[in-house]
Amino acid sequence: MWRTAVLLALCAASPARALADDAGTLLSDDTWNYRSTGHLAVDGGLVVGFPAALPTGMSVGAGAGVTVGDALTWGARASWVTATESSLPWTVTQSDLRLRVTGGVQTRPGRGTIGLRLGLGGTMVHETRMRNQGMRAGLTGSELETSAFALLPAADLDAVVALHIAGPWLLMTSGGPSLDLHGGTLHGGWSAELGVAWQP
Amino acid sequence: MAAVSRAAIIAAGAALAGCGNLSGFGGSVPPLATVHVQVTGDLASVQVPGPGAPKLAAALVWGAQWLTEPLCVLPTSDASVQALIAAGCRDAFGFVPDRVAVNVPLGPDGTAELDLLDLPAADVMVGDVTARVAYASVVIYDDRDGDGTLTLGRASRLGGRDDGRPDDSGVQTTDVVYAASFVSMTQPDRRLAFREGGFDRAAAFYPRAGCGDPLPSFSIVSAGGFSAQAALAAELAGQLPPEDPSACLEQPADTPVTVAYRAPGPLRELACEERTLDSSIRYREPPADPIDLTSRTDACASVPDFGTGQAKGMTQYVVSGRSDDSCVGLTHYVLRGCRNDPLCEQPQWDITKTPPSWWRCSAQAPQ
What we know:
The complex is a heterodimer. Chain A is mainly beta. Chain A is 10% helix and 62% strand. In chain A, a hairpin with a 4-residue loop joins strand 4 (90-107) and strand 5. The model of chain A is unreliable at 11-21 (pLDDT under 50). In chain B, 11% of the residues lie in helices and 28% in strands. The chains are: A mainly beta, B mainly beta. The interface between A and B is medium-sized, with 38 and 27 residues. Strand 6 (145-166) of chain A pairs antiparallel with strand 1 (19-20) of chain B, so a sheet runs across the interface.
């Protein structure tokens, strides 16, 4: 109800205010201008992807990164995602902290930025395993729940698309395949990110 | 910038070193409970000759909540009905299997470890979600069919008239039970209990009145048993038959369960499940042709109406299964009635005026 009231109030008030004072308008000719002179971009957003060490599921979390450079770039990224999946005996929660050193290439057609980014580093996985029905059966301690850490060598290859929106702000999305080494075998997956970037 | 590079190098090095041990969905699954079984006695003294060396195994069997049919418990002075009850009724206070949860081969030293990887399902538990319980019997058997599990048989049932139910041969099981921790409430027993929430002491599910409550979750409980007379007297008084408190035990689930070899005859029903659990009976229309009574016991009995007078002297013809069937059971025939009620007002069949020529019970007046 209150949202409807606010919307109606804005619709009613905006034309009158625009007529009364051009300098105070929400949108002007300069609103969508952007500036992109810097070689540094900082971004962050929502991350989804395949869990690093689970055979199924989708991890969801947040990530951030910094990119330096023009046509050739380098930087660092970090993201934290978590997934909970179940089998008959287990409920497994894995939280992945992905740390990458990145390098890539990019071009800037118009307001956009298109690039390819390779990330190398490690994924720190924290696993919690809960024995299903264990609590009802009276299990305690390690019979009921176990946890473990692992650091897995990993690599990502992401396509990056960014669009300058206004001023130093960009809408940014990226995604692509990922690999990690777990238990002596390569474990394939994918990850994607949707967020905003700040490029002064 | 140098610091960032150094951190990245350290992280990469640690990653390449590879540390930690994730399990995911893999690895061994710890059991929710383990029942330790020890068998005593001399198998050779009770062994039934079989086709080969016995393949002894231990099974954990969850019990069903079952009520016997009235004919099997109502007192009668008719010798033919008594013989029929002896031939076709299972122990009214016996343990009735519902589901086999675990099977493991019995070790040469007569021990077995029964690992329970799942809780009993809701349908084998009695009570509501705030207070429910399940009981299981440890059964030692010869796995003669070699299928790795205790095969539960089911009584056969004779057919009815042509357009009625055909013969139901039931399920014949060749597995032979040699020992069990819980055979009947009229004998000392030792059972695995799984209790969730509270415990309803008024529940008549394999009751242990006078004993302590089963421990929360899994436990091994014991009772000394009560006599059938005491049970019927308690039933008439609206109570549960009392147990001797000195024979009661409530122990942790890892307490060993010791069972002794016994002659398999009285244990036969431990490998027999029931079609219906609520004492309801399925009646059949007598076939036109005579019934093959080879190895069967039959009798004419009055239709029980529990003193309401509704039966008006109506009789039923009841036939037991064959003496060599693995499970006992009864087939009921009435000249008039419905499949689930011989006293129904709108009968599905009524041949009281034209009973089959072989009908050996008293002629019944048309309703």
